[in-house]
């Protein structure tokens, strides 16, 4: 897949793919980036993944704003710099910024002490996946659904607690949520799976382990 191809190429700095499509085909146009092309320009029709050398915590991408807790810091910066700042601060639970149609690399980023995201189409947030996050607990966001098997668990919760649950279940390798439903509510019905195979769909969002557990 694209992640493995980019890992194998030292010159690859990341990859980008079209987000909104009408079909549910698993085949998606992906363009690998290198060198000066590795910066990301905001466009709601595309998703980009950039390679980061650090082994810091993983983050959940969520549409909405962090409105709870203490505001630790605010500054205009790139999203990579925002992640690095939050990585270094134990009190930082994540960061949020207002979406813009302007083609720019820096945003007015606000850092918060609480990971609670309130749904809003005007904002984007990245929530740190808990103090336990590391290479063995990192998750990858993919637009699509996990299929081919029955869920091992399901329930109403937010994405932060979904990650906590999956960390604690030895059979869990990922979870998914209906995108339209999540845009209208903070807590939604989330299904958990032992599989990491995601089929592309504009209707679903999935989070799968970067290092899957061995099947029991």
Walkthrough of the structure:
By secondary structure, the protein is an alpha+beta fold. Helices cover 15% and strands 40% of the residues. The protein has helices at 2-8, 79-88, 159-168, 179-184; strands spanning 12-18, 30-34, 46-50, 59-63, 65-66, 71-77, 94-98, 107-112, 117-118, 123-128, 139-146, 153-157, 174-178, 188-193, 198-209. Strands 4-10-7-8-6 form a 5-stranded antiparallel β-sheet, with helices on one face. It has a 5-stranded antiparallel β-sheet with strand order 11-15-13-14-12. A 3-stranded antiparallel β-sheet has the order 2-1-3, covered by helices on one side. Strand 7 (94-98) and strand 8 (107-112) form a beta hairpin. The longest helix is centred in the middle third of the chain and has 10 residues, at 79-88. The model is unreliable at 21-27 and 131-136 (pLDDT under 50).
SSE order and pairing:
Elements: H1 2-8, E1 12-18, E2 30-34, E3 46-50, E4 59-63, E5 65-66, E6 71-77, H2 79-88, E7 94-98, E8 107-112, E9 117-118, E10 123-128, E11 139-146, E12 153-157, H3 159-168, E13 174-178, H4 179-184, E14 188-193, E15 198-209
Antiparallel strand pairs: 1-2, 1-3, 4-10, 5-9, 6-8, 7-8, 7-10, 11-15, 12-14, 13-14, 13-15
């Amino acid at each position: 897949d694209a992640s493995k191809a980019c890992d194998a190429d030292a010159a690859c700095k990341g990859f980008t793919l079209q987000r909104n499509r009408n079909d549910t085909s698993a085949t998606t146009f992906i363009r690998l980036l290198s060198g000066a092309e590795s910066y990301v320009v905001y466009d709601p029709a595309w998703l980009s993944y950039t390679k980061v050398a650090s082994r810091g915590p993983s983050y959940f991408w969520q549409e909405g704003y962090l409105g709870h807790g203490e505001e630790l810091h605010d500054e205009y910066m790139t999203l990579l710099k925002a992640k690095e700042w939050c990585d270094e601060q134990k009190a930082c639970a994540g960061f949020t910024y207002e979406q813009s149609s302007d083609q720019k690399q820096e945003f007015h980023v606000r850092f918060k002490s609480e990971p609670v995201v309130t749904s809003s189409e005007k904002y984007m947030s990245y929530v740190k996946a808990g103090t336990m996050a590391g290479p063995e607990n990192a998750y990858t966001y993919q637009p699509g659904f996990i299929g081919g098997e029955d869920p091992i668990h399901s329930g109403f919760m937010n994405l932060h607690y979904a990650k906590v649950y999956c960390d604690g279940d030895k059979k869990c390798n990922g979870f998914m949520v209906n995108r339209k439903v999540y845009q209208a509510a903070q807590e939604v019905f989330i299904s958990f799976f032992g599989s990491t195979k995601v089929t592309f769909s504009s209707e679903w969002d999935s989070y799968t382990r970067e290092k899957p557990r061995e099947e029991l």
